[in-house]
Amino acid sequence: MEHKSFLNLDQDLYTFTLENGLQVYLVPFKNQKNYYAILGCKYGSRDIEFKVKTESIKTPLGTAHFLEHKMFEMEDGIDPFKFFSKSGVNTNASTTFDNTRYYIWGINDLEKNLNYLLDFVYTPYFTDSNVSKEKGIIKEEILMYEDDPEWAMDDEMRKNLFYNLPSREKIAGTVDSIMDITKDDLYHAYNAFYHPNNMVLVIGGNINPQKIEKLIRNHKKLNSIKKIDLVKRKVYKEPTDVYSEFKAIYKNIKIPKVRFSVKINKEKFKDFSDIEQNMYLGIIMSSLFGSTSNFKEYVTQEELTSGFYIEKNTFDSFMTLDITGESDKADLFIEEIKKTLENVKVKHDELERIKKVWIASEIRMIDSVEMTVDNIYSDFIMYNKVYLNRVECIKNLNSKRLNKFIKELDLSNQSLVMALPEENRDRDF
Which of 165, 160, 169 shows the shortest CA–CA distance to 243? Predict the structure, then answer.
């Protein structure tokens, strides 16, 4: 087991890799009573077509999310939720476009609960009966999210942005697609992706690294799995432009909501690492639309919005810049967004100010078990490596590289989704 320093602060990090490829990160916290553990894999809703050796496999939309649900059903009848709750520990799972993760958090019986987390994630049990039973549950979940205006806008925006990427579809799939899922689809996906060398285990909090390492290395089920070649995912050709520039949806709301997005081709930034791309786009977004930006001051003073937030996302070889807000002056709000994007400049002192804020945030983060574990896990998923000194990465950002990034940045591929009150359904756009 290798011992490292995290963020060059007084925070230890231990890491090792099993023979079958599972990467493990352990972060012991001083003066903390709780713990938090994530066991996750690089398998999400986008992974619908793949190749295992010479066999090409295609699964229905929503298979990854469906699989996540069914992992909580055990052949011995034990309910993992009830197992963990007996010792006051919480458990949950989530599926995104590019990963699925299972996590536990609490105070008591870490070793017993970690052992069981490994047991149930590495013991799939799918039958025709339990798969059929789950379809009604997931159907209700899909319909519930369709009723949520912001969730619906996000779903419609991905369809606006992308032609061919599976990420244009809902993570949970459609009501029709989940009806096609079989136990064979689940086993195909599980056997292809839920393999230790496609997974990572991150544990932080009140832990003894040596005891935890021993438990993991001695877990019979986990260590009986032999290392295999990683599955080959289908590569999709995706145009740079957006599929559609506008979409209106109608919901039971009083004030219109807008989702404005820009599709950015990452191929333009081959001279920049993935983390640099992410950070430089973040700087630009903070400068243009952050809490101290001219845009924020103007739209607030002119009452063009009752509130908005910004995000950046990554989908395969594309990034998106996203602004979501509520406005009864939507046309003026959108016009101000477009004007702000027309001339992107970030002064040196603004760059340095943003860097200081980020560094302070990273240092504060180290006091949080959950945020530290989440960041390590996110690095593994996004960058295929863990940045032990993110503060140094931030310090290395500079105006020369930023200006080069801005020069290559194409913000012309824009799309808009509006959620409008039902009474506006007959209005022309």
Answer: 160
